[in-house]
User: Fold these one by one.
Assistant:
Number 1:
Amino acid sequence: MSDNDRSRRSGVVLEKSYQFLLWLVPLLDNFPNSQKFLLGDRIQGLCTDILEGLVEATYSKNALPHLAATNIRLEKLRFLFRLTHELKLLDARRYEFAARAIDEIGRLVGGWIKASRAVPA
């Protein structure tokens, strides 16, 4: 993968992740105190870790370990959002928005992983 391809790919997924986190932080402030500091902190931490992992992948010679870890964090995030919805901490509209955003970020990360594996070492 050329540096230009990597920059374009990482730029899109980084921006999507950043925008998702920007949407998420005020939302988590509305969680009840009983869950704000448990589920809210876990979700925000995972989202921050995802963004950081993508930054690390962007600036690493070998992006695959960072992308693989980010992919696992995205899967954990899917489950936590499902849990918040089932606990009625998140309405259907916000849950759908989050699920679609996480799915889109996941598809971008998956494409980046696939492209990175195709490059001869």
Number 2:
Amino acid sequence: MVILITGIGSGFGKQMALRLSADGHKVYGTFRSASEFIPGVEYIRADVTDDEDCRRAVETVVIREGRIDVFINNAGMGIGGPLEFSSLDDARRQMDVNWMGMVRCLHFVVPVMRKQRCGKIICFSSIGGLIGLPFQGLYSASKFAIEGYCQALRLELMEFGVNVVVIEPGDFATNFTAKRKSVADPLAYQTYKCYEASLKSIEKDESTGLKPEYLAKKISRIVSKKRPAYSYIIATPLQKLSVLLKSILPARWFALILRIYYKLI
């Protein structure tokens, strides 16, 4: 199969490109910077915040291969901190990369798959796209937007034989933690006394999380499925349980659990 992945310079993207290429697929990937290049993988320098870059990346694959069987929207970033102290520019940047980056790519991918009358679109959301996480509100908002967009897109593309799958990872040990931009204003720490302890808890969960190779293995299986599920939570049992609890507990009870877990009380 011909596969296009966004953001293969590191983390999930790099491991997926490595695994899917080893599976025998023809893999293309966009990147902004990379320390090493995977043999056999075709790299396309592109930024998902640039309309023309997205158009050119999709066009490059179609010109060379004549089709795109699987598109994986992986490129993303995180901005953390109390929402009150998060700038409007940060909010725009978070949505521009995580949500609009997906929208831009799909604007050019969808017509290709619709004309083929087949294909898989796999978009990365997060546990944070199912649960609004404290001090990660901008990130959660961008992932909630992906969930809603993909639900609508799935319904629209069913008649054309195109599957839309949403991936909801939990905490993974990648460079995402180091790259996250967090509010550093001293006043934020003074105003929200729990911010520092909560941030340390979040970073600990991520640094001790699952390995990206585990996720790549799961994606390999999803790519091979004829009828994949609408969504997959790829996370620890505890994080999967949290999603279940949100669906069955009264909202106030679940909010109390989150407040305790994230050291807000």
Number 3:
Amino acid sequence: MTEPRDPQPPRRSWPRRLLNRMEVNRAVFYALVNRCWQFLTGPITMLLVVAFFSSELQGYYYTFGALIALQAFVEMGMQVVTVYLTSHEWHKLEIDERGYLTGESSALSRLRSLAALVLKWYAIAGTLFVLAIGLAGYYFFLSQPETDVIWRAPWICIVGLTAVNLMAAPCISLLDGCNQMSVTNRYRAMQGVMGTLVVCGTIFSGAGLWACVAGSAVRLVWELWLIAVRYRRFFATLLKPQPGPQVNWSEEVWPLQWKLAVQAMAAYFTSAFVIPLMFEYQGAEVAGQLGLTWTALMTLQMAANSWMLARAPLFGSLVSQNDITELNRVFRRLSQVSTVALLTGGALFCLVVWLLQLIKGVELPVAWNSFEPAWSLIQKVQTRILPLYPTVLLTLSLFPIHIAQCVMAYIRPFKQEPFLVLNTIYQLLTGLLVWYFGKTYGPVGAGWGFLIVGYLLSVPGFLLILKRFVSRMN
């Protein structure tokens, strides 16, 4: 008589098996949903910008976003530090069925002290953002030639909303570090969907730069809901004072943070800096063309990086448990999948730009006159984005950035930061070349500035750091 066999688990569907093979868990899935939504609805937003904005207003629209990115100079890398330090305590903690944070008392005490520290930090950062970057941006726009664009009130409002968003940021980072990315990324996806709809509606209504304000307001509402409603008991536990071990800022936070801060500030020169540069030297129209193209490409790059960002808490936990074999397996798979995604997306984007150039000046047959309004809008898009040549240069410049982010995602959970010198030199040198070539040769010069430093310094440098780090562990 044969022994009864244990029931076999049901076979997973092929989409689920495919997602698992691509290392897509819930956190990665929602992050990709958010990025894919942005990338797919980007053309719609682009069409609305082209249809309802003048070329000058388009330049102001994207320059607003580039100047708001200066918040990295006051945030100073604290968000990344918070996620990694929180993840090191999380494997001793859990959230119970009522939503309260429980677990080992020493880990809970350390996490509470970290929460108090980062909340104070971001309160100061939000204040500095208003006083420094808000005023600097105001005078930057004031120094430009007079236009009909209404920018003063929208700028003041978006600066205020960004400051409040900064003050809410540490709470989201604490949740991410506590392995709640499947939830926070779901909220980010809903935030992205609603934000796009609100921004598109605002643009369609003819509100101009108030679209930037509307998008920032939607983000703030979702984050406050997540903090005050969805995880209210989590934060009620976390913010309650309790004696016990404390996180030492000078020994545990600052040694990593100052290195991240320098790199975060320098990173501005490899991301948003190029847009206000074009605004200053080439005018609002060229800044608008580059801003629209660069925004689409950076959305693609962030989508590819979602695989790494969503697994940051897992990396931290694996390091704390000394499970290097599993860490290496996950890292290799994630880096391969994310790079292929970036390559595919970049090729498709360049193909779209090429097709737009191909149909430039082509008139529809008489029988298709009913499609003339849509065709005219598509023709107009071609004049509001960069031509194919600079677009290809900027697309190729994404790969050095992606490789660097993959290497940093692997090593930083070890609480080590061997990138300081290389990353700072790479980013500052990139900014220098982008400024030097860009002010004279426009977007083409800026594209070559990115490429020269990226492929001659960043790629070999970061791969060498990774190779040496792995050899030391072995």
